[in-house]
Specification:
Length: 343
């Protein structure tokens, strides 16, 4: 599969270079009626090429059929463009050599040229539609692959409850004994030597301090040093996946206007930004598993110690995300609760 992967990368890369050459060549550029359409095709093929480069052979085996489709579309795009250029050159040559009046030559040339350009644009539109369809299928497949990997690779660790750990704190102390213990326990879950992507739900009733605890951990000096990328976003009961993804991408340094990108493009772009980096994601105030399903495809699972921490008040949501790593928050005593509130 490794050789097939390299071959497909080369095929798409060669097609991309051919398109670039056509765009830059003055004669061929003149023969291509819609340069914006060509540029769109270039961008989409480049996106697919990057996708193949970012995923290991083991992952590609899960999407072998889609890889073949990508290669076929790349070949089709190149064939359509080459055929159009050849047809245009042949038509121009034939019109110039025909023994007709100048008016007839001009009329025939214009009519044939319009027909060929219309057919060419239609064919390219179909190719672009195929690419968009493949991108959507890639996203859906990655959701299944990543979700399956997370479920199968969770280690057999007992659910953690407050008061069960005696590890020393590595970061800032809150001065609240019970809360400091909780910080230690969550930091243990985040930083232990488990390479697979771990999902860590923090569950408890509203107002008990889940978000405060998660924020303290998120900003802890040791945690900051441990992870290459840290992302925090709030879900709540009503949310816009599109707006959240744009905000997250901007937060991690992606510049430019992202509003016109589709959900699939935004999700895969976030996946690419996180790929190869040890990241910490905090999803605050999750009310249903739908919220998790909306974003999980963007979280790569490549055995580098990445973590996703989720706060929720619903036990069934926490249980559906992780049966081993759930951290259940109980009430603190009155003095500790007041001190925490003062923080």
């Amino acid at each position: 599969m490794g050789l097939a992967l390299v071959g497909n990368q080369l095929r798409i890369g060669i097609t991309g270079k051919c398109l670039t050459g056509m765009v830059q060549h003055p004669v061929r550029r003149r023969l291509l009626p819609n340069m914006k359409q060509i540029e769109t095709l270039q961008e989409k093929l480049h996106f697919l090429q990057e996708f193949l480069e970012l995923h290991s052979p083991t992952k590609i085996e899960e999407i072998e059929d889609l890889v073949k489709q990508i290669t076929a579309v790349a070949n089709e795009a190149e064939d359509i463009i080459n055929s159009h250029v050849v047809d245009q050159l042949r038509q121009e040559y034939e019109d110039k050599t025909e023994d007709n009046s100048r008016a007839q030559v001009v009329d025939g040339l214009c009519e044939n040229k319009m027909e060929m350009e219309f057919s060419f644009c239609q064919d390219l539109d179909k190719v672009i539609e195929k690419i968009d369809s493949i991108k959507e299928q890639l996203l859906l497949t990655m959701v299944k692959v990543e979700g399956k990997a997370v479920q199968e690779q969770q280690p057999p660790i007992v659910s953690v409850r407050a008061g069960s750990s005696t590890l020393p704190s590595r970061g800032k102390s809150t001065g609240v004994v019970g809360f400091d213990e909780r910080l230690i326990q969550i930091k243990e879950l985040l930083t232990r030597d488990q390479l697979n992507l771990q999902i860590i739900p923090i569950v408890g009733m509203g107002g008990i301090g889940k978000t405060t605890l998660a924020r303290f951990v998120f900003e802890d000096k040791y945690v900051v040093e441990k992870f290459d990328k840290r992302v925090w976003f709030t879900i709540s009961q009503e949310y816009s996946v599109h707006e959240i993804l744009i905000g997250v991408l901007h937060d991690i340094g992606v510049a430019g206007d992202l509003k016109n990108k589709t959900l699939a493009e935004l999700k895969l772009q976030l996946h690419q930004e996180l790929f190869g980096r040890r990241y910490l994601i905090v999803m605050d105030d999750l009310w249903s598993t739908n919220g998790w399903d909306d974003f999980k495809s963007s979280f790569p699972n490549y055995r580098n110690g990445s973590r996703v921490m989720v706060t929720t008040r619903l036990n069934d949501v926490a249980a559906s995300l992780s049966s081993q790593n759930t951290y259940t928050m109980d009430f603190q005593d009155e003095d500790n609760s007041w001190n925490l509130l003062c923080e």
